[in-house]
Amino acid sequence: SVAELPSTISLAELHHNSDVRTTLLRNGKGLYQVLYPADCLLDIQALCRAVGQQLHPASAADVQKTLGSQRLEAVPAVPGVLGLPTYVDKRLLDAQQLAADSGSRDSVLQFNRDGFQLLAASATVADFSIPLADLETSRLAEVDDLTTITQAVANFTELRIKQRLEETLEFPPLPDTAQRIIKLRVDPYADIKDLTDIVETDPPLAAQVVSWAASPYYAAPGKIKSVHDAIVRVLGFDLVLNLALGLALGKTMAMPKDAPTGITPYWNQSVYGATAVESLVTAIPVEHRPTMGMAYLAGLLHNFGYLILAEVFPPYFTQYCRAKEVNPEANHAHIERHLIGVTRDQLAGWLMRMWEMPPEVCIALRYQNDPDYQGEHAQYAALIYVATRLLREHGIGDGPLEPIPAAFFERLHLTPEKARDVIQGVVDSGEQLRAIAANLAA
C-alpha cells in the first residue's frame, strides 16, 4: 500500500520516514542495486567480500540514465523495481514492517515481512551493514580524544607500535601569520594598522582578504584596493582578524587529491559555513548572541578535520571516500569510526587545542556533531550543527541528512522557520559565495 506524504515534505523528512536505504553500484558487467536498513551503514568492502565481486559507486550519469528510463524521481528502495541484479542486507528480511521510498518524492510504500521477502526472493541476501548504534558513543564529552587518536594511529602503523602522538601524526606547526594574529587577538591596544601590517606580510593572504571584501556578496561601493580598505570600508576589524586566521590555517594542509564523488569542495563548504553561521548569529536576539567573530571563525573552520583526515590517514582516506559515496546520507563520523577509529571532529578539536586556538573554536569543532553536548561554549557547536544540516537540505556540504532536534533551535533562541529563512538567504547568494570560494581555492 502507498502512504501519502504532505507535498511540502523536505528531503530530510522523506528519508526519515523510510526504513530502507538504497544505492547503485557498478562493475565491468553492469549496474547492481543494494538495499540495507536506514539505521545502518553500508560496508562496501564487506559486500564485495560476501558476493565475490569488486563493486564501486555508480556515476551520477548512470543513476540519471536509470531513473530517466523508468521515469522516476529517485532510486526506489524496493527490490526488483529497476530490473537490476539486487543485493539485500539480511537484516531487512527480519523486520516485521518496512517503509520504503517508492521512487516518487511524495510517497512511500509499506510492506509487511512476507511481502518484502516475496519481492526479495530473486535477490542475493548477505550481511554487509553495520548498525549505527554500534558506531555511536554514549557521551562524546567523556571520550578521551588523545587516547582515541593515539590508538587509531597505533592501529594505522604496520608494526602497531604506539608512539607519542606528536611524533606520529607530524602535524604542521602553526603558521607564523596565524601565530601573530592570535597574539593580536589578545592585545587590548591592537588597531587596524597592526592587523594590516600582519596580513600584508603574507601577499597571497592579503590578496584573498581583498578579494573577499570586493566580492559582489558585500556590494561595497567603489574599488577595494588594499587590506586597509577591506577593514575600514567593508568587513571591519573583527571579521578580517578571524577571516585572516581561518584562511591562514586552511593553507596549512594540502587539498586531498581524492574526494567522494559529488562532495561540495572544501573552500565552498568553508565559505558557506562561515556565511551561514554569521547569518544565524545575526538572527539571534541581541541579548542571547554569541561573539560574532568566534562564531564566524568556527564556521570557516568547521570542516578543517576533513583536511587532517586526508593528511594523516591517506590509505584510509581513500576508503572513506568510497564509503561516503555509497552512504551519502550517513553521518561522516560513523564512517570514520568504522574505518579509522577516530573522527575528523576529534582530530580538529585536538589540533586546535595544540595550536592554542580560542576555546570557543576548539569546542565548536570538537562537538559540532554531538547532540548531547551542553557544556561550556555549547552555543558555538550548536550553530555549526544547525547550519550544516540546513545547508545539507539544499545539497550543500556533507553534513548529515537528518532532522534537527527542536532543542537546538531553543539553545540558539531561534525558531526553525526563522533559521530556515536565514539559510535560504545564504543559498540565494550562492553564485557570489562560490565566486569567493573559487578565489580561495586558486
Shape: elongated
Tally of alpha and pi helices: 23
The structure class reads: alpha+beta
Mean pLDDT: 86
Biggest sheet character: 5 strands, mixed
List the strand order in the largest sheet.
5-2-3-6-9
Helix content class: 40-55%
Ranges with pLDDT <50 over ≥5 residues? Answer: 1-15, 157-166
Brief characterization of the structure:
By secondary structure, the chain is of the alpha+beta class. The protein has 23 helices and ten strands.
Walk me through this protein's architecture.
The structure is a single chain. The protein is α+β, with helices and mostly antiparallel strands and 442 residues long. The protein has helices at 11-16, 44-51, 60-70, 90-93, 113-119, 145-156, 165-169, 176-185, 192-200, 203-213, 227-235, 237-250, 266-283, 292-301, 304-312, 314-326, 332-339, 344-354, 359-366, 378-392, 406-412, 416-428, 430-441; strands at 2-4, 20-27, 30-37, 40-42, 56-57, 86-89, 97-101, 107-112, 124-126, 129-131. A five-stranded mixed sheet has the order 5-2-3-6-9. It has a three-stranded antiparallel sheet with strand order 1-8-7. Strand 2 (20-27) and strand 3 form a beta hairpin.
Summarize the helices and strands and which ones pair or pack.
Layout: E1 2-4, H1 11-16, E2 20-27, E3 30-37, E4 40-42, H2 44-51, E5 56-57, H3 60-70, E6 86-89, H4 90-93, E7 97-101, E8 107-112, H5 113-119, E9 124-126, E10 129-131, H6 145-156, H7 165-169, H8 176-185, H9 192-200, H10 203-213, H11 227-235, H12 237-250, H13 266-283, H14 292-301, H15 304-312, H16 314-326, H17 332-339, H18 344-354, H19 359-366, H20 378-392, H21 406-412, H22 416-428, H23 430-441
Parallel strand pairs: 3-6, 6-9
Antiparallel strand pairs: 1-8, 2-3, 2-5, 4-10, 7-8
Helix pairs in contact: 8-9, 8-12, 9-11, 10-11, 10-12, 11-12, 12-14, 13-14, 13-20, 13-22, 13-23, 14-19, 14-20, 15-16, 15-18, 16-17, 18-19, 19-20, 20-21, 20-22
